[in-house]
UniProtKB/TrEMBL annotation:
GO terms for molecular function: FAD binding. This is FAD-dependent oxidoreductase. Residues 13-347 form the FAD-binding domain. SUPFAM superfamilies: FAD/NAD(P)-binding domain. Pfam families: FAD_binding_3 (PF01494). It comes from Planotetraspora thailandica. PANTHER family: MONOOXYGENASE (PTHR46865:SF2), OXIDOREDUCTASE-RELATED (PTHR46865).
Length: 402
């Protein structure tokens, strides 16, 4: 069956997608291609800029970019990141970590990827910015949805592609405390000047319970500062950026290397990301006419390096199964989960157990980690880590739905 036949069979079913970062627009692309009518609602007033770098690696990820026709655009905007050097408190280089441990085959800033996906889909997709879903009421024929600002509307299906703190998940399945598992770390990212004159490279400094790093971005014209720190669960307003900056400044007060200057830059940073390093574990990703996608369903955590690839593969599979089922959401949702469950589980395992190596909790452990990093380029098994990550990324075979 060709694309035209699939589109006619699907009868232009209306699908509401919550979230306009990566998973949502990727799903909108495939839904539109199969004849569905997608609407994307995003709480933020515009596309979210900046953020950390995200990876694509292995056959499945790269084949997906090619099928969407955006591989060239993604490669044009990639970071071309090279090695990351670990330094001591006065900036002396301790060890170099090869790029393939961090960057995959293609690395791109999350905000740049979001713009590529938005440009790809905006002509065939309705986007609503500055609004969010407040209630979801399902009956035999569809779903009635109310919004914080807009008028109520009716859709055939609702997809929660709204991340770790998914509103759709909370409204449909219950509070996030039932599904979100914190890994004991917090992360902050914001843009800064490339004062270290990094040439497609990174620098990182490890202190007990804390990591400070800087990576060049956008062809060395700027940089991204990243902070990780170990902590029990914190209580703060996720929408209060100034409160989050205050937490970060207090935690990293007195830390050496470039930390004081980076914290000073933070005050005027045009965008700022702060959140826990967490995973989402659920027994089921759908309920009735509502289904979850990407981090909302199975966040593997940024430490896995798999979140973006997992989200875009999930979008492809979900749309493809809906198309193959002729819009029958019960059959499609079940097949989507059958296809994706083992892959999502493997990606989550990739992110577990990394935290103590990423952010050692004592001075002795920090010294031990630095010594291991120093020796890594010379040990015969140095390539096994990157190969292991690639094996997980390639752990799914993409079906052909058209």
């Amino acid at each position: 069956m060709n694309i035209t036949d699939i589109a006619q069979r699907n009868g232009n079913l209306k699908v509401l997608i919550s979230g306009a970062s990566v998973a949502g627009p990727a799903l909108a692309y495939w839904l539109r291609r199969y004849g569905f009518s997608p609407t994307v609602v995003e709480r933020a007033p515009a596309l979210r800029e900046g953020g950390y770098a995200v990876d694509f690696r292995g056959r499945a990820h790269l084949a997906l970019l090619e099928r969407m026709g955006i591989r060239a655009d993604v490669e044009k905007a990639q970071t071309h990141m090279g090695a990351t050097s670990y330094v001591n408190a006065v900036g002396k280089r301790i060890a170099d970590m090869p790029a393939d441990l961090f960057a995959g085959d293609i690395e791109i800033l999350r905000g740049d990827l979001a713009h590529i996906l938005y440009d790809l889909t905006r002509d065939g997709t309705e986007y609503i910015f500055g609004d969010s879903i407040t209630s979801i009421t399902e009956d035999a024929g569809g779903v009635d949805v109310t919004f914080e600002r807009g008028a109520p509307r009716r859709f055939d299906l609702v997809v929660g592609a709204d991340g770790l703190h998914s509103a759709v998940r909370a409204l449909t399945f219950g509070p996030e405390s039932r599904f979100v598992r914190e890994l004991g770390l917090y992360c902050a990212v914001f843009p800064t000047a490339n004062r270290l004159r990094l040439d497609h490279a990174g620098r990182a400094y490890i202190a007990p319970g804390k990591v400070v790093s800087v990576f060049s971005a956008r062809h060395n014209t700027e940089a991204r500062a990243m902070f990780y720190f170990a902590s029990p669960p914190l209580s703060y307003d996720r929408h209060d950026t100034e409160a989050q900056k205050k937490i970060l400044a207090e935690v990293f007060a007195g830390v050496g290397w470039e930390t004081p200057r980076l914290l000073a830059d933070m005050a005027d940073a045009p965008d700022f990301y702060f959140d826990s390093i967490s995973q989402v574990h659920m027994d089921h990703w759908s309920k009735g006419r509502v289904v979850l996608l990407g981090d909302a369903a199975s966040c593997p955590s940024p430490l896995s390096g798999m979140g973006t690839g997992l989200a875009m593969v999930g979008a492809y599979v979900l749309a493809g199964e809906l198309a193959a089922a002729g819009g029958d959401h019960r059959r499609a949702f079940a097949r989507y989960e059958e296809e994706m469950r083992a892959y999502a589980t493997a990606c989550q395992k990739q992110g577990q157990g990394v935290s103590k190596w990423m952010v050692p909790d004592s001075g002795l452990m920090a010294w031990f980690v630095n010594q291991n990093f120093k020796l890594l380029p010379y040990v015969p098994w140095k390539g096994l880590i990157a190969k292991g990550v690639r094996k997980v990324a390639e752990g799914i075979t993409l079906k052909t739905y058209e």
